């Protein structure tokens, strides 16, 4: 498991701590995470998980919103182009 994946788990743990020199560390070891598959000391932090889920939902909502905006722009351009062609003929 890569460090980024372990840190992703740690971000959701109640036992995480921020060290200004090292970044996110475990409050039990005061070091970067070293577990392989799962941390035996993991305790979920419901507030942090809710924040992460809210950010994910917001990003997904903005992404789908921009897709629908581009779809509307494309339809408008198609209609305008169609009208101009009909007027030329």
Give an account of the 3D structure.
By secondary structure, the chain is mainly alpha-helical. It contains 2 helices and 2 strands, in the order H-E-E-H. The chain has helices spanning 3-10, 46-88, and strands spanning 16-19, 23-26. Strands 1-2 form a two-stranded antiparallel ribbon. A hairpin with a 3-residue loop joins strand 1 and strand 2 (23-26). The N and C termini lie far apart (64 Å). The mean pLDDT is 88.
Average pLDDT figure = 88
Helices, by number, come to 2
Outline type: rod-shaped
Q: Main β-sheet, in a few words?
A: 2 strands, antiparallel
* Beta-strand percentage range: 5-15%
Number of strands: 2
Residue windows where pLDDT falls under 50 for at least 5 positions: none
What's the arrangement of strands in the largest beta sheet?
A: 1-2
Secondary structural class: mainly alpha
- The amount of helix comes to 55-70%
CA radius of gyration: 24 Å
H/E element order? HEEH
> What separation lies between the terminal Cα atoms?
64 Å
Keywords:
89 residues; mainly alpha; two-stranded antiparallel sheet; 2 helices; 2 strands
In short:
The chain has helices spanning 3-10, 46-88, and strands at residues 16-19, 23-26. By secondary structure, the protein is mainly alpha-helical.
How would the blueprint of this fold be written?
Blueprint lengths: L2 H8 L5 E4 L3 E4 L19 H43 L1
Antiparallel strand pairs: 1-2
């Amino acid at each position: 498991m890569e460090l980024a994946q372990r840190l992703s788990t740690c971000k959701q743990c109640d036992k995480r701590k921020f060290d200004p020199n090292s970044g996110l560390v475990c409050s039990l070891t005061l070091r970067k995470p070293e577990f392989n598959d799962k941390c035996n000391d993991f305790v979920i932090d419901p507030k942090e998980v809710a924040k992460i889920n809210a950010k994910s939902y917001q990003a997904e909502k903005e992404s789908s919103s921009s897709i629908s905006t581009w779809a509307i722009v494309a339809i408008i351009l198609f209609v305008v182009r169609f009208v101009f062609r009909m007027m030329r003929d």
